[in-house]
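Researcher: Structure prediction, please.
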Amino acid sequence: MVDSPCIKICELNRDDICVDCGRTRAEIAGWMSMSESQKAKVVELADKRRSTSALNQLEPSNNR
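Model: Predicted structure follows.
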């Protein structure tokens, strides 16, 4: 069984991606009807999104 990455703090960014779990709005809405393999892929993609987001936050801004 693939566990949901949800931590019960939903906050979507401007790209409709949850800043806490890394899933898109569509992935969150469709979670219950997904197969186990689909859920595993969503978790993998969400982890990548969160990693990329965290790395982007560490990069210095050129807008300062």
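Model: The radius of gyration is 13 Å.
Researcher: Thanks, that helps.
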